[in-house]
Task: inverse folding
């Protein structure tokens, strides 16, 4: 076998084994998207009940706007930004998109004269910040593909603590989330959401026919304490849904990236085998012409 | 429907998933103010739950259900009871040995204020698991 042919065959083998790996990763990611989606759905009942309870408590509480978590101070100077990225790479532009969105938000906030304090989830984001020697107020890694409520709570507690600390002592007065919204299997986009201060929305809820108007609750111990107890839960759960959404998006991005890697590997194998065939044919042609040439020379010399 | 007026429709929901739902005769939960029992036709209530406490549910057939609830609240409206817990575990699902190990670990080397919640959680878990075992044994 000629040297050229041997080289082609070796490259085909190597691309084939890469393809096997990317194909496996694609399949794993697809199965994990489904799981992540199921977890996201399972967390929705809690959210629905929580919203209902918060609005009930807010209605019952004396003055919602004075609540520390809702108060809109005029001059806000320090903003915490929680950016959710992936722990592992090979997920296309997933982490890069979230980071870019985070950078845009940070630039926007700085323009308004605010200091940005980053909190980063995911090893990719952490190394991005480390490499640029930027300080992070919090870094959380090791759970982005399967976040649990405990992880979210840890982050939520840190954010809440920072929010409750006064600005002079290094606290923050705004909290933003940057996460990747999972619209569908094919579409995910990085999104920004302001978590705190909460926007108080006065809305008139229209009572649909056959639906009971929300009950006038008796609060235990009282509406203000209930609201106090509920709002931190709301933060924890917002972080939790952001993590779950991002996890689903991460798997979807990885699946897509691995699918195109597999397709590319197939194309490469195809073109390499064409080249290998050509090389083999070339060798055969050469051998024949050598034999014919040799025979001709022999008969001529006789 | 007269019969519907005499049962509670209970749903126990944790942050990660819906844990249990069904009909019940009564529930007993613990709020910062003390234990509160809910029977059918209770007035609407929205109450916080203490950090770690058992929740007791008496089902229609008289069997009792116990759930460890770690933080959350519950709402009663009409005969709909929603128990919304940050973390909740069904009594029968708790691994007693592991809960005991967790308590020992939390108490290891004295208990500081920071470790108190962990100790309480473990204690509640053990209590709930033991009651659940007693129920199943009976």
Result:
């Amino acid at each position: 076998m000629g040297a050229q042919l041997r080289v082609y065959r070796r490259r085909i083998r190597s691309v084939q084994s890469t393809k096997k790996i990317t194909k496996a990763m694609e399949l794993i990611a697809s199965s994990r998207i489904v799981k992540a989606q199921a977890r996201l759905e399972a967390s929705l009942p809690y959210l629905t009940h929580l919203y209902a309870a918060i609005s009930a408590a807010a209605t019952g509480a004396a003055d919602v706007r004075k609540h520390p978590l809702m108060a809109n101070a005029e001059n806000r100077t320090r903003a915490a930004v929680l950016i959710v990225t992936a722990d592992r790479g090979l997920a296309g532009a997933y982490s890069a998109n979230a980071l870019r969105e985070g950078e845009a938000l940070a630039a926007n906030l700085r323009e308004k004269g605010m200091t940005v304090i980053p909190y980063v989830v995911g090893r990719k984001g952490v190394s991005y910040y480390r490499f640029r020697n930027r300080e992070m107020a919090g870094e959380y890694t090791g759970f982005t593909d399967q976040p649990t409520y405990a992880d979210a709570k840890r982050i939520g507690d840190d954010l809440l603590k920072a929010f409750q600390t006064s600005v002079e002592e290094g606290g923050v007065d705004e909290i933003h989330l940057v996460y990747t919204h999972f619209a569908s299997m094919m579409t995910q986009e990085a999104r920004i959401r302001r978590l705190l201060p909460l926007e108080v929305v006065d809305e008139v809820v229209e009572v649909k026919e056959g639906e009971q108007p929300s009950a006038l609750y008796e609060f235990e111990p009282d509406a203000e304490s209930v609201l106090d107890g509920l709002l931190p839960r709301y933060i924890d759960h917002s972080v939790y849904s952001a993590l779950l959404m991002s996890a689903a998006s991460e798997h979807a991005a990885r699946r897509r990236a691995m699918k195109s890697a597999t397709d590319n590997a197939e194309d490469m194998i195809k073109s390499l085998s064409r080249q290998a065939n050509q090389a083999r044919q070339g060798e055969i042609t050469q051998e024949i012409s050598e034999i014919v040439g040799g025979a001709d020379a022999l008969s001529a010399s006789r | 429907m007269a019969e519907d007026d005499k049962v509670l429709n209970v749903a126990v929901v944790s942050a990660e998933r819906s844990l249990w739902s069904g009909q019940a005769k009564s529930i007993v939960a613990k709020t910062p103010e003390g234990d509160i029992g809910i029977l059918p036709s209770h007035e609407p209530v929205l109450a916080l739950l203490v950090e770690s406490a058992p929740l007791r549910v008496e089902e229609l057939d008289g069997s009792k259900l116990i759930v460890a609830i770690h933080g959350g609240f519950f709402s009663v409206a009409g005969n709909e009871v929603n128990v919304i817990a940050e973390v909740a575990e069904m009594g029968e699902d708790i691994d007693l040995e592991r809960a005991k190990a967790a308590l020992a670990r939390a108490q290891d080397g004295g208990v500081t204020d920071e470790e108190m919640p962990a100790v309480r959680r473990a204690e509640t878990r053990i209590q709930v698991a033991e009651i659940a075992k007693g129920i199943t044994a009976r």
